[in-house]
Backbone:
């Protein structure tokens, strides 16, 4: 029989640390972007799209391989009433509106400085709102979902 070490089964800590690092990169890049510079502006859009594509990929992996399986297991175990937590945690699409905003930004590349600055303010507000929403989501997964996952694994062994 294979010995399972449950600390090694934390599916959130490593990817979330990567996401937090990427969020810091976004913040740093954003704060150093000169929206009057076409190159800076376009570089920011490209970087944001790459970073958020990675975020979306990880969330898709979570949805398919972690949350779906966890929800199925919780549904099988009628004594546990945590399926609502699983359902609500990943119900909101946080990424599509931002990806649309990033793509919309390319229309501002050839516009004047004032338009790009206006877009920058709009983008900054959207990013702040994303961070305010996404950081608690990460904490919820680490502090609520991971223990559920661990408990299920302990019960099945």
Residues:
């Amino acid at each position: 029989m294979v010995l399972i070490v449950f600390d090694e089964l934390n599916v959130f800590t490593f990817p979330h640390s990567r996401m937090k690092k990427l969020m810091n990169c976004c913040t740093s890049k954003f704060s150093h972007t000169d929206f009057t510079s076409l190159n800076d502006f376009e570089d920011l859009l490209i970087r944001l799209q790459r970073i958020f594509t990675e975020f979306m990929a990880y969330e898709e992996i979570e949805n398919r391989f972690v949350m779906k399986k966890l929800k199925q297991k919780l549904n099988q175990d009628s004594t546990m009433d945590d399926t609502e937590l699983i359902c609500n945690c990943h119900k909101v699409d946080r990424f599509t509106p931002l990806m649309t905003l990033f793509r919309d930004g390319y229309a501002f590349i050839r516009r004047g400085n004032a338009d790009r600055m206006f877009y920058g303010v709009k983008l900054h507000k959207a990013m702040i709102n994303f961070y305010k929403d996404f950081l608690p989501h990460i904490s919820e997964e680490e502090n609520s979902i991971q223990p559920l996952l661990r408990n299920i694994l302990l019960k099945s062994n």
